[in-house]
Design the sequence.
């Protein structure tokens, strides 16, 4: 299948079902709020190396965590009982995203460029970017950020400053989303770490059905 080229002056996407087998759907366009919201509400997300052209992806199998199915191992439960844990939402979105960027740059390279930080900062200011921090015994242990639309959460990246920091943040997020009747956490791509915490593959048809039900734009943001 061809890869579609987007026009910066026309905020639209081809049908997500036209993505290639590896998930690549389109290139080009921009990272304005309107385009990002249109993308996420149709199961599409940007992912590309800094300096390259924007690449838009829509995998045909989706890797998700259902909030109520988050897996907390016995070891993690014991660890959390030993420490004073606090989950904080939206304390400093820019700081969380930048920490994710710095950690990934140190370990394996990152897709989180300055332009991405600016774009998702605007999403946060508009009420759609959401970050969670895990604090352990009064110190920042880890965190994550993503996009929250309707009753769907689209995870972007996470970081740890202390042992288990990102895991605790993900557990806190899942519990918060369950309380607010969210349908899924979109993990975008499979990792063993996320699978160990309850991540699973679902078909595009099942994913699209949940998108249709839950990914609506409204003023009632989390």
Sequence:
């Amino acid at each position: 299948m061809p890869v579609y080229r987007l026009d910066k002056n026309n905020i639209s996407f081809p049908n997500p079902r036209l993505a290639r087998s590896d998930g690549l759907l389109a290139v080009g366009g921009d990272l304005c709020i309107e385009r990002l919201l249109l993308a996420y509400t149709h199961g599409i997300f940007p992912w590309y190396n800094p300096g390259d052209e924007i690449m838009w992806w829509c995998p045909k199998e989706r890797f998700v965590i259902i909030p109520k199915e988050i897996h907390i191992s016995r070891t993690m439960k014991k660890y959390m009982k030993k420490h004073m844990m606090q989950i904080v939402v939206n304390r400093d979105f820019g700081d969380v995203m930048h920490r994710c960027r710095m950690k990934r740059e140190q370990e394996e390279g990152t897709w989180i460029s300055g332009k991405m930080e600016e774009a998702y900062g605007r999403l946060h200011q508009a009420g759609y970017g959401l970050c969670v921090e895990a604090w352990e015994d009064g110190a920042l242990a880890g965190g994550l950020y993503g996009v929250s639309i309707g009753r769907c959460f689209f995870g972007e990246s996470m970081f740890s400053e202390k042992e288990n920091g990102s895991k605790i943040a993900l557990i806190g997020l899942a519990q918060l989303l369950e309380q607010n009747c969210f349908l899924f956490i979109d993990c975008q791509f499979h990792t063993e770490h996320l699978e160990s915490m309850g991540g699973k593959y679902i078909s595009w048809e099942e994913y699209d059905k949940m998108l249709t039900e839950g990914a609506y734009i409204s003023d009632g943001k989390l």
User: Anything to note?
Assistant: The chain has a mean pLDDT of 93. The CA atoms of residues 66 and 184 lie 5 Å apart. The two ends are 38 Å apart (CA to CA).
